Amino acid sequence: MKKWRIGLIGVGGIMNGVHIPGYLQCDNCEITAICDIDPEKLEKVGEKLHVPAERRYLKATDLMDSGLVDAVDIATPDNMHCPIAAEAVKRGIPFCTEKPMGMNYHEVKTICDGANEKGLPGMVCFSWHYRPYVRLMKEQIDSGKLGQIYHVYIRCIKDSGLWEGRRLEWRFDEKQSASGVMGDLSSHMFDIARFIGNEFVSVSADAGIFVKERRELHSEKIVPVTTWDWCNIIAKMENNVNATFQISRTTKFIGDWIEVEVYGEKGRLDYKYVEGRQSLEVQTGANEIQILKPEARHDAIQSKAYLNIIEGKTDGLEATLENAKKCQAVLDAAYRSVKENRWVDISEIEKEG
After folding, report:
1. Which domain holds residue 284?
2. How many angstroms separate the CA atoms of 24 and 34, rounded?
3. What average pLDDT does this structure show over 95-104?
4. Of the residues 101, 127, 153, the one at which a domain ends
5. Residue 2: predicted pLDDT
6. Which of 63, 73, 106, 330 shows the smallest number of beta carbons within 10 Å?
7. How far apart are the C-alpha atoms of 121 and 311, rounded to whole Å?
8. Same domain for 123 and 134?
9. Residues of the chain with pLDDT > 90: what percent?
10. pLDDT value at position 353?
């Protein structure tokens, strides 16, 4: 069995919390090099993974030129996803990036088109594609159990913007995270809506900032927050489906609550994720309510999906580069809607790209 040599670029929270545990469950890969601009993180993760000091890099291009990796995994702040992916494309190295893939549709399309022209495998890390409950939800909808879909309501609310003492990290800086909570959380929710079978046509959005100032990351200086804390989006979808998204990171005492409600001509579905506890309820009659749980066939690992893409395998449910482009177009449309106070068609963004 070939073992793919994986290089990790950006070894912060999401890499350690999601990506690395996934790779450690896969027999056909090994983490051979790591990169981060923070020497302390490099040392800590390097020691944990037994990656020797000479295989720890401060520059992504040095890692890619080392001859030590067959593919890279990029989990940096948003503004660096595409520049690093561009270097991977230039070198013919498969890549995956955290979401959102870029700061705007043009740069994402440029990277994706470049990779496709070279036949280079790539993936965006929309992690909900690999959640068993979400795969089960998609299966229920695809089966036609709900009939024609009428409404989709998606809520994603957290208290993470209200953590006491939280400083102005990259998520609160528009130069590093263009749309703040919209890119951070809405991107996942837009992707879930697409994953269960609904393409966006146009959007109308509103957004704002509640916590307007924070201390700088490495000083006591108080500086302005330049990214949104909350956003609400109304969307017109294909097949006359309408969707509403409520997104916030300023909901006191609610650490992590995600809910997806789908209503169709034959029934309804309600998926809840509350502080790690999940449930799925499907109703198709006045007294016909089912509480469903995933089975083994719904299990998936994001890092394994990336390795499958590299090997040319697919289950048809992976978050491909096409997903990255589609979601970025919706993000750009929603961002423009807030700025210009109008409905924005997705085709408007795609034509400009």
Report:
1. 130-352
2. 15
3. 97
4. 127
5. 82
6. 106
7. 9
8. no
9. 98
10. 81
The 8-class DSSP code of residue 96 comes to E
112-128: pLDDT as tens digits: 999 999 999 999 999 99
List the structure tokens of 169: 């990290």
Specify the pTM.
0.96
Q: How big is the chain by its Cα radius of gyration, in Å?
A: 20
Digit-coded pLDDT (tens) for 142-160? 999 999 999 999 999 999 9
Question: Residue 12's domain is classified under what CATH number?
Answer: 3.40.50.720
Provide the domain count of the chain.
2
Averaged pLDDT for residues 165-190:
95
Residue 267 belongs to a domain with what CATH number?
3.30.360.10
- Domain termination residue (choose one: 70, 98, 127): 127
Asked if 114 and 207 sit in the same domain, the reply is no
Closest-CA residue to 228 (of 190, 168, 174): 174
Q: Where are the alpha helices (DSSP H) in 9-154?
A: 13-14, 20-24, 39-49, 60-64, 78-91, 105-118, 132-142
What is d(CA 190, CA 106) in angstroms, rounded to the nearest whole number?
Answer: 19
